[in-house]
Amino acid sequence: MSHEIQSTQSLVSDPESEKPVKIALVRCHIVAEVCSGGGCFKAFNNKTVAFSDYDDSAEMVAAFTCGGCSGRRVKRLCKSVQKFGATTVHLSSCMCKDMDGYAKCPHIDSIKKMVEDLGLSVVEGTHH
Length: 128
Ligand code: SF4
Known about the structure:
Structural class: alpha/beta
Largest sheet: 5 strands, mixed
Number of helices: 4
Bound molecules: iron/sulfur cluster
Number of domains: 1
């Protein structure tokens, strides 16, 4: 399957530390009214689409919604998940592209910057 994934760093384990990648998933708070996030988790569990470059050592350590426009709790919760070793944040596909009747998040660039400013890498997309 063809897909565009943008990342600020390699998805695989750090070759020097041999530590597994620990991922936090951020989803759109609005879309979460009608979506359980099952598609995102299925893609992670099966290592498909945006998760296809990870090996089996990758862990999903947290999943949460943005808290509402304009990404109200992204910074706070991303900071919090660093305590659990999160190194990479995936922004859900529904945030990154128009799909299923929902428009791409208009705040995506500022949300990305919030996450990157914490020293976390960002991957745009999950299951589409
Ligand atoms: S900030 Fe973006 S991701 Fe969050 S609720 Fe608004 S549109 Fe959805």
